[in-house]
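Ticket closed. Logging final result for SCP-2 sterol transfer family protein.
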Amino acid sequence: MVDRTGVTDVELAGLRGRALIETLERIDPARLDPADVDVNALAAAVDPAELGKDDFRRLLAALSRVAERVPELDLGRVDPKHFATLVARASRAQLDRVVAEPPLRAWLLGEIFDRMSTHLRQDRAAELDAVVHWRLSGGSGAGGYDRYETVIRGGSCTVRREMREQPRVTITVGPADFFQLITHQATPAVLFVTGKIKVKGDLAFAAGLIGFFDLPEPG
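Final structure:
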């Protein structure tokens, strides 16, 4: 079936890079058949390293628009390895373009924090009881930060936007550096030494925090 722009759902298959992004921007979501779309195939068809500075933002914006009508294309359905690869392959300039747009910033950060509970290593965190406050700079919240609270307790991890409990550690970091941290592109030690991450509270715990999570390696 052809929509008013002349784009058909089957044309998504086989498209790569900028051609795929341009098609997603033009296509009418109402004309997409959910049975014919695979968000992981689309994610695999895009390598941010081959795109321009603004193309990664365009990709996420297009997916966000289409996903409002076609949930099968929601970013949350991208498997962990594909998701990590997309973020890891994006340049700092590309990530900066994404986080400069408030809806996309909230969408991407929310997706990352929402996945934390599934990546918690229960074998390591079974006896852990700790609250972590995250402050992501450049945000719209108090003091110019987007804030998230992660509570690791009883072998599970709960994430919320309200700061309800006293933290064992408060971590302040820029979004791009945070993305590098959770995709194995940078270590907490390097970010700390270079002043890109600030820690208040239990420094030893903060240094080993990532070890409580089984974060997927980018492809």
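The chain has two domains: 9-116, 121-212. No further action required.
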